[in-house]
Amino acid sequence: MALLQLAAASFLTVAMLGGCTAPDAGLQAEDKAPVPTHYVMDKHSFARPAEAVATHLDLDIHVDMEKKRIQGTATYDLERQSGDSVVFDTDGLNIESVTLGDGSTAKFTMGDSTFMGRSLAVALPQGMNKVIIAYSTGANAKALQWLNPAQTAGKEKPFLFTQGEATLTRTWIPIQDSPGIRITYNAHVTVPADLMAVMSATNPQERSTDGSYRFNMDKPIPSYLIALAVGDLGFKPTGARTGVYAERSVVDTAAWELADMEKMVEAAEKLYGPYRWGRYDVIVLPPSFPFGGMENPMLTFATPTILAGDRSLTSLIAHELAHSWSGNLVTNATWNDFWLNEGFTVYFEHRITEALYGKDYNDMTSVLGYQDLLANIAEIDSGAHPEDSALHLDLTGRNPDDGMTDVPYEKGYAMLRLIETKVGRPKFDAFLRGYFDHFAFQSINTDTFTTYIQKELLVPEHVQIDLDAWINKPGIPADMIIPVSKNFQQVDTQVLRFKDGSAAKDLDTKGWGTFQWMHFLRHLPAKQDAKRMDDLDATFHFTASGNSEILAAWLEQCVKNDYGKAYGKLDEFLTNVGRRKFLMPLYQELLATEKGKAVAMKIYAHARPNYHSVSQRSLDELLHWKEGSAQ
Ligand code: BES
Ligand code: ZN
Predict the structure, then answer these.
(1) What integer pLDDT is reported at residue 628 of this predicted model?
(2) Annotated catalytic residue: which of 280, 409, 587, 611?
(3) Rounded to whole angstroms, what are the CA distances from 299 to 91, 134, 189, 192, 326?
């Protein structure tokens, strides 16, 4: 009976409400926050942690690169408060058996399929606190991207990577998949002997002889941060605590590009306290990785499109590193609170890059971010959910990915900058440092943050700010500080000259870096004939640019102006690169005309199999794609 009720229950996870139970973590790494007894509702998980919560995962899996399947066991230690079952999330998994800690077979029930997967409820006798779930992944596990050798740099060996955030970990591990629930894990992973495996945990630096690897993450993390990559990997250190993994043919290039990693960790620690995770490594993945970066603890996953050859795109690493505090140490308790992860991280990222590269650099990235924000809000305003430009969202019944726009990033950042300006940097820094220490290894929601900042900073400092408007209302509040960049003023002058008819070669572009070029490309006249485009390309060689940001911004102009000469490059870029941020605007721009739409559908038909499910989902929706609708 109890099991039937569980099976029928919809999303009932209650995520931990931070700040009530755990003491301050202090400066020395105090890794084990007590298991909380207060939780807030997470509508995107079936788990019921207030009744039974998994505190440790022992994963034992085999990765079959040929069958494109993961098979093995997930063994959980549980802490129980009430009830006679424990509920996990699954999505597309084959659950083969469930065994209890005493070796007996457990009764389990799976709920109906929903857009967030299926619940797995395991009946527990009194006092039982261990379960072993034997399972395998399904054919289209959304977290997993299995790459054929042709999709890799080396072209000889297959590759696998996982992407857990937001709710995809349940597609490769049966788990309580809510960011409000934290877990430690260790893993035994076997892979073909000619490949190496790495995880968001302690990692090998060399290939094992038999394809067997062991990992340990002894700090409690949310499930979306459990990650695995398998491929023909090499490793190269970039400092005492930092290093780079990549396919062996890429590892030297990647290590050169990311040479500043060690300095970034030092700068971050100087700002907001010790880096608590041991090593900080980055793995540069094949180009189909759907994001720029993903902050998997101890091992950031990154796109190779940051390898510009001039180290100009490495602020992305500062961003993912900053998540080691904002996100991984202090975590959004539900996906409605996603801005707590990303807004703080963009702020922290800017502080790291300012320390390394100076204020002018930061002013430029702030302006570019603001441009993204304005464009994104305009889009949101004309869509089905204009309320999505608030920081705190209600994503009930929706895929949490829908809330992952520029708003939590750039509006969140703008709010923190405003508060920084009002209280002054020293006080704001002291507050942030205290915030990270106070909530270390906890998951908190927006209310907990608001209460904390009122009490610790805004009230004592007599700061007037309408937090409710910033957090709960859509749009851009009137008191937002609009960023400006003196480097861009000079670019604006050249844009005007070009608009007035100057030839490209007569423009003064001396000393321009990536950001100036991005700003320039974003502000070219909306319509120009092929001759002007020819002139730009012959002078500045955009189509041949090895810098993905410059190339993507240029290709957008090419589509806008139907500049046919660049369509070969466009096809190549859209086929090889799976980073959603680049794909969406290009396909969107193509859709503006009938001719462009035909080009988009044709490219998508052959490019789609190269994309991760995350990018496929967004593009299927944009292009109204139906399987079999290839042109
Ligand atoms: N955590 C995000 C990536 C993410 C967001 C994954 C939403 C799944 C759902 C990561 O830290 C991130 O923000 N990446 C950015 C780069 C950054 C420099 C803004 C990206 O991938 O573009
Ligand atoms: Zn981020």
Answers:
(1) 62
(2) 409
(3) 25, 27, 17, 22, 15
Q: Specify the ligand 1 atom closest to the Cα of 291.
A: 21
Ligand 2 centroid – CA 316 distance (Å): 9
Which atom of ligand 1 lies at the shortest distance from residue 338's CA? 7
Which candidate, 216, 199, 203, places its Cα nearest to that of 70? 199
Quote the Cα angle for 155-228-212, to 5°: 85
Cα–Cα distance between 384 and 393 in angstroms, integer? 14
Strand partners, 147: 159
Tell me which architecture the domain covering 330-472 has in CATH: Orthogonal Bundle (1.10)
pLDDT at 566: 98
Nearest CA to ligand 1 atom 10: 294
Task: Say whether domain 48-263+278-309 belongs to CATH 2.60.40.1730.
Answer: yes
Contact by Cβ (8 Å): 317, 293: yes
The domain segmentation of the chain, as residue ranges, is 48-263+278-309, 330-472, 488-623
Q: How wide is the angle at C-alpha 247 spanned by C-alphas 242 and 251, nearest 5°?
A: 45
Residue nearest to atom 11 of ligand 1 (CA): 294
pLDDT along the chain (631 residues), means of 10: 41 56 38 69 97 98 98 99 98 98 98 98 98 98 98 98 98 98 98 98 98 98 99 98 98 98 98 98 98 99 98 98 98 98 98 98 98 98 98 98 98 98 98 98 98 98 98 98 98 98 98 98 96 98 98 98 98 98 98 98 98 98 82 41
Buried b (16+ CB within 10 A) or exposed e, 512-531: bebbbbbbbbbbbeeebeee
Candidate CATH numbers 3.20.20.70, 1.25.40.320, 3.30.830.10, 3.40.50.10860; the one for domain 488-623: 1.25.40.320
- 358: Cβ contacts below 8 Å, ≥ 6 apart: none
Atom 17 of ligand 1, nearest CA residue: 316
Question: d(Cα 554, Cα 368) in Å, to the nearest integer?
Answer: 15
Best residue among 291, 353, 372, 398 to mutate for probing ligand 1, ranked by most atoms within 8 Å of CB: 291
Closest ligand 1 atom number to CA of residue 320: 11
Structure tokens at 5: 């009720």
| Secondary structure letter of residue 339 according to DSSP | H
* Nearest to 49, CA basis, from 10, 20, 78, 19: 78
Cα–Cα distance, 201 to 216 (Å, whole number) = 5
Identity of the amino acid at 345: T
Q: How far apart are alpha carbons 340 and 179 in whole angstroms?
A: 12
Rounded distance from Cα 461 to ligand 1 centre (Å):
33
Put simply, whether the predicted model's pTM sits higher than 0.70 gets the answer yes
Looking at residue 199, what DSSP letter applies? E
Ligand nearest to the CA of 317: 1
| CA 265 – ligand 1 centroid, Å | 19
Our measurement of the distance from residue 543's CA atom to the centroid of its chain's CA atoms, rounded to an integer in Å, reads 28
Q: Can 409 be counted among the known catalytic residues?
A: yes
Residues flanking ligand 1, CB < 6 Å: 165-166, 291-295, 316, 319-320, 323, 342, 404, 409, 581
Question: Looking at residue 39, what is its pLDDT?
Answer: 84
Say what the alpha-carbon torsion angle 480, 485, 489, 491 is, to the nearest 10 degrees. -120
Q: Measure the CA–CA gap between 242 and 258, rounded to whole angstroms.
A: 10
Q: Which residue of the set 165, 257, 295, 320 is catalytic? A: 320
Q: How many other C-beta atoms can be found within 10 angstroms of the C-beta atom of residue 218? A: 14
CB atoms within 10 A of CB 448: 22
